[in-house]
Model the fold of this input.
Amino acid sequence: MSTVTYLVDNRTINAEIGETLLDISLRHDIPHTSVCGGIARCSTCRVMIVEGLENCAPRNSREQLLAERLHLGPQIRLACQTTITGDVSLRRLVLDTEDIELTSQLRSDKTPISAGIEKKIAILFADIRNFTPFAETLPPYDVIHILNRYFYRMDKVIHQHGGFINNYMGDGLMALFGVDHPGDIVFNAVKAALGMLEEVEKLKPYLDTVYGTNFNIGIGIHYGIAVLGSVGGQGQRRMTAIGDAVNMASRVEAANKVFSTRLLITEQAYDEINKQVQLGRQFSDVTLQGKSGRHTLHEVVSLAENK
Done:
């Protein structure tokens, strides 16, 4: 019999010789993150061995492969593969309050459903910048873990401001405002967008600490008429929005790459909130890919001081 001390939890528990650290955690109801299910396909169960490294069995081939890929030092071990022969003190590295909530939450989808109507709404598109090269450096399960953590934060902010995420597209998302929550629709969408940018900044220290890198996002908002309706096969129907307004919001989001901005809105959206936001640059006579005509885009940097 040996002991494992969890420094973050301030708990010392008994363990059987030969058990993996992950099995020990789960057997004692410690919510230890393991996105791949404990098969060494991700690094989310990683721990830092603070004391007793000599009481940990050497890395097996699976763990060694991932350790070399991620350049993990000898004290950083995968809990799902590390067995112990004596007392160990450790600190879990991919675990905080948000991780616990994210990995254990069971939520029902309450996306509003409507049938074939036209409605003027605010459409928000967001996309992670340069996510492909970021993802290529990590195991696939870690990529999914990061995306889930990112989308979890974005979902919370968007719901707080009366919107909902209607669609996920790889590392991008589309959110709708004004479908079932009337009011200051565009202003709510912009407040959500600014909150999303703040959440990404808060996420960066986590990404830097755990993965040694981070990312930024771009957001585009348009205000216009979209067709809302339920689509899909039997038992899989969900509400979606289609139309020129949706395409416009997507193109505005992409324009952030051209102008090196983070949040752009169309003239139609700006007309609704011109005294409620602080603008940066204005881009006139803009050509958007896949759209005819010339357009004016506004960079939003913050809410107006009186707001």
